[in-house]
Amino acid sequence: MASFVDRVVLHVSGGNGGHGCVSVRREKFKPLGGPDGGNGGDGGDVVLRVDGQTTTLLNYHHAPHRAAQNGGPGKGDLRHGHRGEDLVLSVPDGTVVKDSEGNVLADLVGEGAEFVAAAGGQGGLGNAALASVKRKAPGFALLGIPGSSRDIVLELKSIADVALVGYPSAGKSSLVAAVSAARPKIADYPFTTLVPNLGVVQAGDVRYTVADVPGLIPGASEGRGLGLEFLRHVERCAALVHVLDCATLEPGRDPVTDLETIEAELAAYAVDDALDGGGAVPLTERPRLVALNKVDVPEARELAEFVRPELESRGYRVFEISTASHEGLRALTFAMAEVVAEARAARPAVQEAPRVVLRPKGVRGPGFTITREERNLEPLWHVRGDKPERWIQQTDFNNEEAVGYLADRLAKLGVEDELFRQGARPGDAVLIGPEDNGVVFDWEPTMVGGAELLGGPRGTDLRLAEFDRPTREQKRREHQERRDAKAAARAELEEERLAGVWTESVQARRGAAPQAPDEEPGA
């Protein structure tokens, strides 16, 4: 089972906002208590936060679906719903957040750095908050807005000053163990190192970190071996150290060939331009040192002395070292400290930002757009905008008064006037929101505004009521049907009277024998 994961796909969802409450205060001796429905609570956010105790993304590899808590619904007696708790996800230092298309959303560097990956939804207003001078007792409330959901990619890029690169079993892990207190796994077979190892080195007054990157092989930049997975850990390093094995017994390999192969893989790897404010330096343009390792072996020392002039002629600073006998390690550590100090000095100084007073300006324009489209050879007016789409999500379409309130808000925003201006006709279809999750309705421009001025029970809107006025022909037909029904009822009653049904029932109650219809009394 994997114990180190540096790239995961995370599905995050913010909490849904709670619905507002519709309630009217009822208390003895207070018949007109008024609306007292509380507001719904906002949903919680999904927050990524850098934690120094977290070193891997393994937890999110096993549980990639994360959601924050929903907001509570409002209740009567002005009791507002609780706000959903934020879900804080701890990530290692140096985590890069990207969207599904590969665009960088955040670069989390430094203890406590945060990024809101998914925002929670807004809670709906209760009818107490919707009450006004004209609308004193609203019979509706606003619904809570669902929280945002999206897929993000988390990539861990180690925070190190110097990266050790080279072939498998070149001695990179041994070098880290020799110059620092780190104790990585060391063995005599290739690909012993499966995860990057970090070590802290103290050279004089300079303290820096060294990263042991798993072994690179030809084609690493294209995904062969482990190189593509861990080359991202080299991107933040200020300098590179080529660790070359001078005692290898593999045919066709020598320090110069190994160096050229690794340089070709570093040149083929594309550094993320979004790092360091878009000024990331390619790997082949960063300071590089060469360490000829395993010179404690006589044949390796001879080979190192042979190839050193050629490497120095190419502009590299070459050091002959042995991680077994610690030969040449002191000079190498001080050379790395010198390169790190120069890189730190070249960084622009972080100045304290002056205090700036922000005065936000009003939003210019209507805040929405209307475009004419065609659907089934019929015109379709598509309305997009933050406010109209949010209002659609907050509306309970099972409540006529809520729908009328939405119509008033859209008219006040200017949607009706813009549809008139663009040439919309009564009966045209109007779509508000995205095509897959929007609301389509027929436009009726003759609907007047001001539902709060109209009478009617709570939860209804007289403008949405359907009144069918019958024609004269319908009235004549209904009048004739009623006359025919009355005539049929009278005829049925007459037949029952002639049959003696009524007389029999009366005599039965009196206890007398029934008489024939033509028999005279007392005969």
Automatic annotation (TrEMBL):
Q: What is this protein called?
A: GTPase Obg
Q: Where is the OBG-type G domain?
A: 160-341
According to its UniProt record, which protein family does this protein belong to? Belongs to the TRAFAC class OBG-HflX-like GTPase superfamily. OBG GTPase family.
* Functional summary from the UniProt entry: An essential GTPase which binds GTP, GDP and possibly (p)ppGpp with moderate affinity, with high nucleotide exchange rates and a fairly low GTP hydrolysis rate. Plays a role in control of the cell cycle, stress response, ribosome biogenesis and in those bacteria that undergo differentiation, in morphogenesis control.
One GO MF annotation is:
GTP binding
Q: EC annotation?
A: 3.6.5.-
SUPFAM superfamilies per record: Obg GTP-binding protein C-terminal domain, Obg GTP-binding protein N-terminal domain, P-loop containing nucleoside triphosphate hydrolases
Q: Which residues form the Obg domain?
A: 2-159
Positions contributing to Mg(2+) binding? 173, 193
Give binding positions for GTP: 166-173, 191-195, 212-215, 293-296, 322-324
A Gene Ontology annotation in the biological process aspect, one of them, is: ribosome biogenesis
